[in-house]
Design a protein that fits this description.
Order of helices and strands: HEHEEHHHEHEHEHHEHEHE
Shape: globular
Distance between the termini: 57 Å
Number of strands: 9
Strand content: 15-25%
Structural class: alpha/beta
CATH superfamily of the largest domain: Phosphatidylinositol (PI) phosphodiesterase
Mean pLDDT: 96
């Protein structure tokens, strides 16, 4: 009986370790992301003239020499725009979904009572022009093909350094199949503790990185608050995957995360340069 129990435990542990295994061979392109601090949604101030994910916020990040993290999703007419929320309530004060309106319709709204409008990804790429690296988060409610197809067409001619990341594993799987040379990251957090609405089983799988065997990410972007989580620690310590911290909001948080992460996405403060 004891032998059977030990065999079962061994099999469960082996399956778990295989499930959370990321890509083991580091993508050499990932080295170009190192040594930068990444301004979350640009170097922004939602109470000023350069709100998050605006051209002005991105311009300020470039001027200060910071990499940029940004979000991209599709409009109804399949224009990739840079916006975090699926709904414009918070950013523009109107209760509408980006996916249900054309880009022409969305251009009438301004961000956080500033003069800035929702930019297209094409506009952002033209502004940055390879001056700093980009971490591009794909906002994928469910199916990935439409957004990945449109955005990849823009990015394949972009000369600057970039990587892609997403909470949705289907986006990473799509890129692994179509553009395996592009550096891709799996985003995750403790969805239950963050009180994010959704399927608990799905969130359990994502929190514990149990789909890494399918996505084979080049890096794990994990909410820094949960940096001691088991699966994240195994990926970091056993598999030596590249790690990215989100979102650091103070110098103290940054300093406390240095031994856990290689890339740092910051917000709401200006980091001290070492």
């Amino acid at each position: 009986m004891l032998e059977i129990l030990l065999i079962i435990i061994f099999v469960v542990v082996a399956v778990y370790l295989l499930a959370v295994m990321p890509k083991l061979r580091r993508n050499p392109a990932g080295k170009q992301l190192d040594g930068w601090l990444y301004a979350h949604r640009g170097l922004h101030d939602n109470n000023g003239e350069a709100p998050e994910n605006s051209l002005k916020a991105f311009h300020r990040a470039v001027e200060k020499g910071y990499g940029i993290e940004l979000d991209v999703q599709l409009t109804k007419d399949l224009v990739p725009v840079v916006m975090h929320d699926y709904n414009l309530r918070r950013a523009c004060g109107v209760d509408i979904k980006i996916s249900e309106h054309t880009y022409g319709e969305l251009k009438q709204y301004t961000l956080f009572q500033s003069q800035e409008k929702i930019p297209t990804l094409e506009e952002v790429l033209e502004l940055v022009d390879g001056k700093v690296p980009l971490i591009i988060e794909f906002k994928i409610p469910w199916t990935a093909a439409a957004l990945c197809t449109v955005v990849s067409e823009l990015l394949k001619d972009y000369k600057g350094v970039y990587c892609i990341e997403s909470f949705n594993p289907f986006g990473l799987i799509w890129y692994k199949q179509h553009y395996p040379e592009v550096v891709r990251g799996q985003l995750s957090t403790d969805f239950i503790k963050e009180k994010i609405d959704g399927n608990r089983f799905q969130y359990f799988m994502l929190k514990h990185l149990l789909l890494n065997f399918l996505t084979k990410p080049d890096f794990i972007a994990y909410h820094h608050v949960y940096k001691t989580g088991l699966s994240f620690t195994i990926c970091r310590k056993l598999y030596h995957v590249k790690t990215a911290a989100w979102t650091i909001q103070s110098q103290a948080e940054l300093d406390s995360c240095r031994e856990y992460y290689e890339l740092f996405i910051f917000d709401s403060f200006i980091p001290k340069v070492e």
